[in-house]
Design brief:
This protein is an all-alpha fold and 206 residues long. It is built from nine helices and no strands. α3 packs across α4, α3 packs across α6 and α6 crosses α9.
């Protein structure tokens, strides 16, 4: 695990070096940049998206950053904050531009199956028992997607692993994460699950 006790002394370039050595350090970027990014997006969306949805956008931005770094050719020309704000802004413009500020982000972000011709998403359900473990490529894609989700920070990795592997109920997860009620928890799990599906599909087709 990354030692966060001295993270405040690391500038962004030094932190980038640490992330390349150990992806756990990406969690420092997540914590350092989250509040500013959420505030920036709240102003940009003017209430069109709730905080849960904005956190989803922020986590997606962290996953994009993580993928750029592990590809080995990433150059940080500004700050992590500026970079993540820009990625979040691009995602929001893309989403809200399509919806004209009237359609829920999650509904809009998963339109159709054009990017999923083989119905891969349906293989990840409320139980991992349905995943064909004999299909090594599919199983490894899910494992890699979970690793990316964990490295990016946020609640999704923990929520899904508690639900799938530790068999936590919606009521238990509601208490664990401090959500308003079990319906909110179900919505969060569904969003996290869809994010995992997309990541796994991308892994399978890279």
């Amino acid at each position: 695990m990354a030692d966060e006790t001295h993270f405040t002394s690391l500038n962004d370039q030094a932190l980038l070096v640490k992330i390349k050595e150990n992806s756990d350090y990406l969690g420092i970027v997540y914590k350092r940049c989250k509040a500013n990014c959420l505030g920036f997006m709240r102003k940009m969306t003017n209430g069109a998206l709730n905080d849960y949805e904005l956190e989803d956008v922020f986590q997606d931005a962290n996953i994009i950053l993580y993928e750029k770094i592990v590809n080995g050719d990433f150059v940080l020309t500004a700050s992590f904050q500026t970079y993540l704000n820009a990625v979040c802004r691009f995602q929001l413009l893309n989403t809200l531009g399509k919806s004209k500020l009237t359609t829920d982000f999650q509904d809009n972000s998963d339109d159709g199956d054009d990017e999923n011709p083989n119905g891969y998403y349906s293989s990840i359900t409320d139980s991992l028992d349905g995943v064909d473990h004999s299909n090594e490529a599919q199983f490894l894609a899910i494992e890699k997607a979970l690793e990316k989700m964990k490295a990016a920070g946020g609640h999704c990795y923990e929520l899904l692993t508690l639900f799938w592997y530790h068999k936590k109920s919606m009521n238990e997860l509601t208490t664990e994460f401090g959500y308003n009620n079990s319906d909110t928890t179900k919505n969060q799990k569904a969003r996290c699950q869809k994010r995992l599906e997309k990541l796994a599909y991308n892994e399978l087709n890279n």
